[in-house]
Amino acid sequence: MLFYFITSSFCWSPQMLAIAFEIGMKPFSDEYRNRMLNTFRVSGDDFERAAEGIQWLYNVEKPPFNIPSFNHWHFDYFSYNPEQLEITENSYTDNLYYNLGQTQAHLFAADSTKPWPFSFNLKHFLTSVCDAHSIFHASELFSSEFPKGDNHGKKFMISYNGKTKSILDFWEEGCGDFTQLNWNDVNDTANKIMKEFPTNPYNQTEISWSSVMKETREITKKFGYSDLSNNQKLTENYVEKCKEISRQQIAKAGYALQISLKRIAINQYQLPPLSIKGRKTETFAWSLLALLLPIVIFVFSRTHFRNQK
């Protein structure tokens, strides 16, 4: 079955998220994948594939859910201030770095035993690992043109192929490298990226997210902003470098998931059977309705005909 992804903004495209997920799941069995999918389903998600869990945090911000509460979790508020301006530093602590660490701690400790909180933490963690590797997510530019910050590249506009968009959106789309992919394409692309970047840079059992985000900041400064000016037209050299770095960051996010998921046990959750007490309550409710319905109809009809006289 061919399945095309819905375009999203302020994040890696759904295609890129799914590719990172497939790289992350390479060492795991079909049973582990099925347990993850079942966990999402038991908690109320109508997913066809476990990979949809990595996209959930973005999808809930769009129709029909329209929940805008999670956007601040996608970004870390580290200031990039190359002009050494006097600025008011953002003091948010409820950010990407904090929530990634907290979510990981609970998943590793296995202290969320109910399916819904465990599922929520897992979906949050999967996405946050990708956010930590996403250019412009780990810092915010302050300059004379953006004295209050460029909102992680959302206000920094560029031009390419006759179209104007934010520099953040351009990178979140993989610089145009990942469009109209179906699920077979996702798997093939994941395999190609692993061949291009075959070495897992994370050889420890627990990843230092502060180090990951520090490296993401350096890449953002060196290659993301580069020598660009606001509203500048991108060169082909810049676009090709953007595509290469996007593939590199997807690979690193996938490898990070490989290491982290090894420490996350997923139980075989099952839908709880309806209790006898629940059945009795439901039966009583329907019985009561059956008794009261004729009385309601009688009262309504008498009132209706009386008003017609």
TrEMBL record:
Record keyword Nuclease present: yes
Organism domain of life: Eukaryota
GO biological-process terms attached to the record: DNA catabolic process
GO molecular function: endonuclease activity; hydrolase activity, acting on ester bonds; metal ion binding; nucleic acid binding
Residues forming coiled coils: none
UniProt key word Transmembrane: yes
Transmembrane feature ranges: 283-301
Pfam families: S1-P1_nuclease (PF02265)
Keywords on record: Disulfide bond, Endonuclease, Glycoprotein, Hydrolase, Membrane, Metal-binding, Nuclease, Transmembrane, Transmembrane helix
PANTHER family xrefs: ENDONUCLEASE 4, STRAND-SPECIFIC NUCLEASE, PUTATIVE-RELATED
Family that this chain belongs to: Belongs to the nuclease type I family.
Protein name: Uncharacterized protein
